[in-house]
Design goal:
The complex is a heterodimer of chains A (367) and B (666). With 367 residues, chain A is α/β, with parallel strands linked by helices. Chain A is built from 15 helices and 10 strands. In chain A, the strands form 2 sheets. In chain A, strands 3-2-1-4-5 form a 5-stranded parallel beta sheet, covered by helices on one side. Chain A has a 5-stranded mixed beta sheet with strand order 8-7-6-9-10. In chain A, helix 2 packs antiparallel against helix 3 and helix 2 runs parallel beside helix 5. Chain B has 27 helices and 2 strands. Chain B has 666 residues and is mainly α. In chain B, strand 1 and strand 2 form a beta hairpin. Helices cover 73% and strands 1% of the residues of chain B. Chain B folds into 2 domains: 294 residues, ABC transporter involved in vitamin B12 uptake, BtuC (Orthogonal Bundle), CATH 1.10.3470.10; 320 residues, Orthogonal Bundle (ABC transporter involved in vitamin B12 uptake, BtuC). The chains are: A alpha/beta (367), B mainly alpha (666). At the A-B interface, helix 5, helix 7, strand 3, helix 8 and strand 8 of A face helix 2, helix 4, helix 6, helix 16 and helix 21 of B.
Chain lengths: 367, 666
């Protein structure tokens, strides 16, 4: 409100100082807009603005006044813009128990929404979501609102949203998005806390915001139980795991503390073999000579085309202990920055792969 | 060129590098071979004795050794390519990176990854070669009219680098996940896991080196001027083409294997020349040796200290970072043949007489573009043409962007027009002067180092780095009296510092990439109404101030002596104008990022339309700049709806075709 008042005072000052006809007219118009804005909504300000527009058209009709009328042009921009200063937005309120019309920018949150059975009205970069997150897949009717870092706000505004969910990664757009709908920024990647707990908190919070608290608790419980069941069945003497994703034929991402994969591995009662430094999102980029582990080497798809088949004849690769002992597990793609469903999917794939591997190893021993 | 010590030999600088390499290698071996030290395998629980030995032997044999070899080979290849390019073009600052060959190769690979991945399986070397050749051809066609004068070639190289950078940026913006691998490549990682790369590069390098050796004698004669060389019976043109082809080929071979390695190609020939390799034969021998050692030393240092670094720093980006200060140091020591007189005349030729009608037309166009940008858009149900019912979104979303685009366009156009008149160089622009890049460096570092990025912090960081860049420009050019060509070269060096920083940021696959590159490619997305309004007000104020500088800008293109004779204290005026340009650029960069080409294009268009005297030229440029940015912003919002292409990038694409076509006439 302060900036609106400042604007108001400034305009009054202008209109008092200048006595020329044109400027007095402008001062009158600007004052009217500002007053309307302070006391009413954007809509009433808009009406006043239209009124001003009519006035000035009449004014432009007089040929002698046309020159002075040109002076008005820059001030028109001011009037336009003063409409927007300190815009207080009335958020369309939805009743207490209904599902709000929600959009999600961050894919982790899209996934969380889907897991609660809520189909978002809009999401960002849907084509890439389908390619990289894959599951749960988004139905046709979800509107694509563009890049995650720059969602199309005009489009979002036309969707009549109640709620926009985003993560601190896209924090820069929060102020402007909040003119469209109420924006909630949820932090999932916080290296200081336990990652499982972070995911649970995010799911719970999404549940609260969308009036789906009961479903959220059920989903959390369901996923917890699934992982616990797998944990009981996995042999406790399973050697440590080193989870990597290939970037090209020379580099891999190794996932350590603070990543989704690491959390799942710990949750299953297993050990992550990567003890090196990781970044804020729990991974680091290394060459394949660093992939030395006595345990299993877990490769998560997709393997880029440049790295396909390169390692069949690679002597360094052959020398890796995991390769030498036939302890390489290949898992289908799981989004590495995913939410609870991704976590459980990874746990499940890992469990399957370990079980198969175990059977093979037993078979070899029995021979 | 000057040489530091008359009796010096490049061996004096190569020997210490060899010693450093041996020391670090020994140190690394101690870490790698467990026989010497116990602590290296602390994370491989229970790796038994013989197995550990086998593994560490494999690591040494198939990772460490090939990596050291490839560092030597790539450095040698780039050093050789640099010598050849510098000799053929008689240009002391020609190199694979400054001529745009490396970035052309990168764009080729990006496009192939996206649209024809099978092509890469066939041979990424050829894709890289095609990209490199195409961008080199563009550079030549841009500088042909100035008979490939050194500064013209390097400026054209910079402009092509900037364009290709813009194009790559938009590809990365929309395909962040697919390009994970290519980003590491672009930063030049030397990591190896077999001998295949070495076996690939070695024969090519040997062949090229032999061919270069055979051509050394005729090449040496090129140091004489062209007519005397041809009178000695050399087909100058054929020789040049062949040697250039060789150097581009060996660059593409090296680059397609390990990625873009900055500045070794420039630094190696220049340093061995400074160290006393006076003849071409000496340089052909020493530059590859020194280049290889330089790259190996850098790589070994990075290997040694990689554990202490917060993020992965690929070697190629590191040499780029080291090379930029070298270029800055080198610039005051270069002797440049001045080509100013011919340009200053041609650049000011008027195509036709301008009239006030032209201004009117421009204003009408500007108004039309603004109305289009405000009222016409796509929505979920298709195109929307009339304003009813969309007042809210016009006021909230479109006006700030149109205001900001117009304001930034005006500011950049004014800066560009000023600097082009001041330096008498049609390629000069705020982007070229490095102020945009300097501001961007500050902003990238701020975003990277602080967890909570706020707008005031960004403004502060941007303004500070713009001032620092300006101070560097002034300090390095004060002694030479702000001579235009040196000024532009300083700008190139600063811009060259920006590229590796960006590469490092991208190579780490930081999820914040998208936001950073969206901003870097000149988006009005983050502008709010107060920013937009202040941009326009500032722009209008600056336009109002034009009459104060028109006399200077009318006199400066006539050349230093004429201007002095007419009572202009040239150095002081240049300083003031430089400060003005810096302020304009910094402000515009804060709004739309460093990569909009309005500053380069708008003054051109204005001059093509016939505005030749300073006052109409500046005002005309301002209008064209606003027009360009408003249309670019609108197009960017509509073309890939609902995704938005940043305005600066669209402006670059729009202007690119015009630029290639129009510039050859100057």
């Amino acid at each position: 409100m302060t900036s609106a008042m400042y604007n108001n005072n400034q305009l009054r000052l202008w209109s008092l100082k200048n006595t020329s006809h044109a400027n007095r007219l402008f001062g009158y118009m600007a004052l009217k807009v500002c007053t309307a804005k302070c006391h009413g909504s954007n809509f009433s300000a808009m009406l006043v603005f239209l009124d001003n527009l009519l006035l000035s058209v009449r004014y432009f009709g007089h040929p002698q006044a046309r020159v002075r009328g040109f002076l008005l042009l820059p001030f028109f921009f001011l009037t336009f813009v003063s409409l927007n200063v300190d815009a207080s937005v009335s958020i369309p309120s939805h009743s207490q128990n209904e599902t709000p019309r929600v959009a999600a920018i961050d894919w982790t949150l899209v996934e969380t929404l889907m897991s609660l059975g809520i189909v978002p009205v809009a999401a960002a970069q849907i084509r890439d979501y389908q390619a990289w997150v894959v599951e749960p897949s988004l139905p046709e009717q979800v509107v694509d609102i563009g890049l995650r870092a720059q969602p199309n706000r005009e489009l979002a505004a036309s969707l009549n949203l109640d709620l926009v969910l985003t993560s601190p990664l896209y924090g820069a757009i929060e102020p402007t998005l909040s003119q469209i709908a109420s924006v909630q920024t949820l932090t999932t990647y916080n290296p200081e806390n336990d990652f499982w707990q972070n995911l649970v908190e995010t799911t719970r919070r999404v549940g609260e915001l969308t009036n789906h608290s009961a479903e959220a608790e059920a989903v959390i419980e369901h996923h917890r139980r699934q992982i616990d069941q797998m944990k009981e069945k996995i042999a406790t003497d399973t050697p440590p795991l080193l989870v990597v994703q290939f970037i090209d034929d020379r580099h891999v991402r190794a996932y350590g503390k603070g990543s989704l994969y690491d959390m799942v591995i710990n949750r299953l009662g297993l050990q992550n073999a990567w003890k090196g430094e990781t970044n804020m999102w729990g991974y680091t980029t290394v060459g394949i000579e660093e992939l030395i582990t006595e345990g299993y080497l877990v490769i998560v798809d997709p393997v880029p085309m440049s790295a396909e088949g390169v390692f069949d004849n690679n002597r360094l690769w052959q020398a890796l202990p995991a390769v030498r002992h036939d302890r390489v597990l290949s898992l289908p793609a799981v989004w590495s920055f995913g939410a609870l469903p991704s976590a459980v999917r990874f746990a499940d794939e890992l469990y399957q792969a370990l079980t198969d591997q175990h059977a093979t190893e037993l078979g070899l021993k029995n021979l | 060129m000057i040489s530091l010590h008359r009796r010096a030999s490049p061996a004096y600088i190569c020997l210490p590098l060899v010693i450093i390499c041996v020391v670090i290698t020994f140190n690394l071996l101690k870490q790698t071979l467990p026989d010497v030290s116990q602590g290296a395998f602390d994370f491989s629980v229970g790796l038994s004795g013989p197995e550990a030995k086998a593994m560490s032997t494999a690591v040494f044999q198939f990772s460490v050794l090939p990596r050291m070899t490839i560092a030597l080979l790539v450095g040698a290849a780039l050093g050789l390519a640099g010598v050849l390019m510098q000799q053929v073009l008689r240009n002391p600052i020609a190199s694979p990176t400054t001529l745009g060959v490396a970035s052309g190769a990168q764009l080729g690979l990006l496009l192939a990854t996206l649209f024809a991945p099978r092509l890469l399986a066939f041979g990424s070397e050829w894709v890289a070669l095609a990209g490199g050749v195409i961008s080199l051809l563009i550079v030549f066609s841009l500088s042909w009219h100035r008979r490939l004068a050194p500064v013209a070639v390097v400026l054209a190289g910079l402009v092509v680098n900037l364009y290709i950078g813009a194009l790559s940026t938009v590809l990365i913006l929309f395909h962040q996940e697919e390009f994970r691998g290519l980003m590491i490549w672009a930063a030049g990682s030397l990591a190896q896991n077999s001998w295949s790369d070495t076996l690939h590069l070695l024969p090519r390098l040997v062949v090229v080196a032999i061919l270069a050796g055979l051509m050394a004698r005729p090449l040496g004669l090129l140091e004489l001027d062209e007519s005397s060389a041809s009178s000695l019976g050399i087909s100058v043109r054929k020789l040049r083409l062949m040697v250039l082809g060789l150097s581009v080929f060996i660059t593409a071979s090296a680059v397609s294997l390990v990625g873009i390695v900055g500045f070794v190609g420039l630094a190696a020939p220049v340093i061995v020349k400074l160290m006393g390799a006076r003849t071409l034969a000496q340089r052909l021998l020493w530059a590859p040796v020194f280049g290889g050692l330089l790259l190996l030393t850098t790589d070994l240092f990075l290997l040694q200290y990689s554990a202490q670094l917060p993020s992965m720093v690929p070697t190629g980006a590191m040499t780029g970072l080291l090379g930029a200060p070298l270029l800055l140091w080198l610039i005051p020591r270069l002797s440049l043949k001045s080509t100013a007189p011919s340009t200053s005349k041609t650049t000011l030729q008027t195509a036709r007489k301008p009239t006030s009608r032209m201004f009117l037309w421009l204003l009408v166009l500007l108004t039309t573009a603004s109305i289009l940008a405000l009222f016409v858009t796509q929505s979920i149900g298709g195109w929307v043409f009339n304003g009813t019912g969309q007042w809210e979104s016009i006021v909230t979303w479109r006006i700030p962007r149109v205001l900001a685009a117009a304001g930034a366009g005006v500011l950049l156009a004014l800066a560009g027009a000023t600097i082009q008149r001041m330096t008498g160089n049609p390629m000069a622009s705020p982007e070229v002067l490095g102020i945009s890049s300097g501001t961007a460096i500050g902003l990238i570092l701020t975003i990277y180092s602080s967890a909570n990025v706020t707008a005031p912090l960004l403004i502060l960081a941007g303004a500070t780095s713009a001032v620092i860049t300006l101070a560097v420009l002034i300090l390095l050019n004060r002694r030479t009296g702000f001579q235009s060509e040196r000024l532009l070269l300083t700008g190139i060096a600063i811009a060259a510092l920006f590229e590796p920083l960006r590469s490092i940021f991208l190579a780490n696959g930081d999820p914040r990439i998208q936001q950073v590159i969206a901003w870097m490619s000149g988006s009005t997305y983050y502008v709010d109404s107060s920013t937009g309004l202040s941009a326009l007000i500032f722009a209008v104020m600056m336009v109002a101030l034009i009459p104060l500088v028109t006399r200077w800008l009318d006199l400066l293109p006539l050349g230093r002596n004429v201007a002095l004779g007419l009572g202009l204290s040239v150095d002081r005026v240049r300083l003031i104008l430089l400060a003005l340009v810096a302020i304009l650029t910094a402000f515009a960069t804060l709004i739309v990022g460093p990569l909009s080409f309005a500053g380069l294009l708008a003054p051109h268009v204005a001059r093509m339309l016939g505005f030749s005297k300073a006052l109409p030229h500046l005002v005309g440029s301002a209008i064209v700049g606003a027009l360009l940015m408003i249309s670019a912003d609108w197009l960017g919002r509509q073309v890939l709806f609902p995704q938005e292409i940043p305005a600066g990038l669209v402006a670059a694409l729009l202007g690119g075709a015009y630029f290639m076509w129009g510039l050859r006439r100057y």
